[in-house]
Amino acid sequence: MENIILIFKFIIGTCLGSHALVITQRLNKENFIWGSSHCDNCQMNLSLLDEIPIYSFLKNKGRCKFCKESIPIVTIVSEILGGFTFFKINFYSFYAILDIIFLFYLLVIALQDFQDQEFSTIFLIPISLITFLSPLSAFYNFELLDWIVLIFLALFFVLEISKSKMGFGDLIIFIFLGLYLGSLVAVHILLLGCILFLIYYLLNPNSHSLAFIPFILGGLIINNLN
Ligand SMILES: [Zn+2]
């Protein structure tokens, strides 16, 4: 039964991941809520079957079925990332929807940061609202140690920002993660994100001006798996 629930969460996550990518790509350009899904190259509308995440990518061998243009790899990557992002949500909880919205916008920000090395501050609105309004936000139960850990790491971020090694957005996301999920969880996620970042950097030594939030999301996903 537990495995079925995990598969269910994964499938929902892939749909959310797919929609998160659409939001980042159509922001300020097209209606991403009611607009129909279409191929960005030939503009042909996709059928419902062609919108099934991962399955449609594999079925059409990563190409548009009309014009045969390659579908960007970020499409399937965001679907798979989405699949793992919502693993820890307790769907039986009344407050699950708050977790889903929080993680969904984190996913949107990570995908936008990955593509543009920046993200739209408008996506911080739902994240900050949920952090401060959800009764399940971790910071309501913070003890002194939690605040010290969070402030200490925030200062580390400020230091890195002053050296232009990190962006202000990375700091904001880390603080919200800490306040919502808890300082120690955020530290764990940050450590895992740094390890992923190092691995990526070692494999791609020539890459520069890397976005860091996708690695934070990667850390969160690995943290979800245990
Ligand atoms: Zn096409």
Q: Sheet bearing the most strands, described? A: none
Structural class: mainly alpha
Relative strand content: under 5%
Work out the count of structural domains.
2
Radius of gyration: 18 Å
Bound molecules: zinc ion
Distinct helical segment count: 9
The helical percent reads 55-70%
The N- to C-terminal Cα distance equals 18 Å
Report the order of strands and helices. HHHHHHHHH
Based on the structure, what is the oligomeric state of the protein chains? single chain
Task: Describe the global form.
Answer: globular
Q: How many DSSP-defined strands?
A: 0
Q: For the residues shown, what is the average pLDDT?
A: 90
Q: Stretches where pLDDT falls below 50 for ≥5 residues?
A: none
Structure commentary:
The chain is mostly helical and 226 residues long. It has two domains: 1-87, no CATH class; 93-226, no CATH class. The chain has nine helices and no strands. The protein has helices at 2-26, 55-59, 73-85, 96-116, 124-133, 144-162, 168-181, 183-203, 213-225. Helix 4 (96-116) runs antiparallel to helix 5 and helix 6 (144-162) packs antiparallel against helix 7 (168-181). The two termini are 18 Å apart. The relative contact order is 0.10. The model has no long low-confidence stretch (mean pLDDT 90). The site of zinc ion (ZN) has 8 residues, from loops. This is Leader peptidase (Prepilin peptidase)/N-methyltransferase. Pfam families: A24_N_bact (PF06750).
Describe what is shown at a glance.
This protein has 226 residues and is mainly alpha-helical. The protein is built from nine helices and no strands. It is globular and about 60 Å long.
